[in-house]
TrEMBL record:
This is NADH-quinone oxidoreductase subunit K. Keywords: Cell inner membrane, Cell membrane, Membrane, NAD, Oxidoreductase, Quinone, Translocase, Transmembrane, Transmembrane helix, Transport, Ubiquinone. NCBIfam families: PRK05715.1-2 (NF004320). The gene is nuoK. The lineage of its organism: Bacteria, Pseudomonadati, Thermodesulfobacteriota, Desulfuromonadia, Desulfuromonadales. Its EC number is 7.1.1.-. It is found in: Cell membrane; Membrane. Belongs to the complex I subunit 4L family. It comes from Geoalkalibacter halelectricus. Its main location: membrane. It is an enzyme of class 7 (translocase). NDH-1 shuttles electrons from NADH, via FMN and iron-sulfur (Fe-S) centers, to quinones in the respiratory chain. The immediate electron acceptor for the enzyme in this species is believed to be ubiquinone. Couples the redox reaction to proton translocation (for every two electrons transferred, four hydrogen ions are translocated across the cytoplasmic membrane), and thus conserves the redox energy in a proton gradient. GO terms for molecular function: NADH dehydrogenase (quinone) (non-electrogenic) activity.
Length: 105
């Protein structure tokens, strides 16, 4: 399968990932579902950076650096959220955000 030669195709896929991620953030009731939705949003942002880099920027390293930065942020965010989910599950025996109403230290 050949990659598309049109910027519009990549932007449509990036916007689709953004809206699926936003829908998942609104719709999901679990912390893991929300984490996956944020990962989709960040993947859409990375795809847009790479598409604009390929079709409009004269220096190809800039878009790739931004995309690597986004991937690093996504990995750090996933590690932090998973550790928080484990801590919340140990304390409240549930990962449902609606069931957790006391977060005092």
């Amino acid at each position: 399968m050949m990659p598309s030669d049109s910027l519009t195709t990549y932007l449509i896929v990036g916007v689709f990932l953004l809206f699926v991620g936003l829908f998942g953030m609104i719709r999901h009731r679990s912390l893991i579902g929300m984490l996956i939705s944020v990962e989709l949003i960040l993947a859409g942002a990375g795809l847009n950076f790479m598409a604009f880099n390929r079709f409009t920027a004269p220096d190809p390293a800039v878009g790739q650096a931004f995309t690597l930065f986004i991937m690093g942020i996504a990995a750090a965010e996933a590690a932090i959220v998973i550790s928080l989910v484990i801590a919340v599950h140990r304390r409240f025996h549930s990962a449902d955000p609606q069931a957790i109403d006391e977060l005092r230290g």
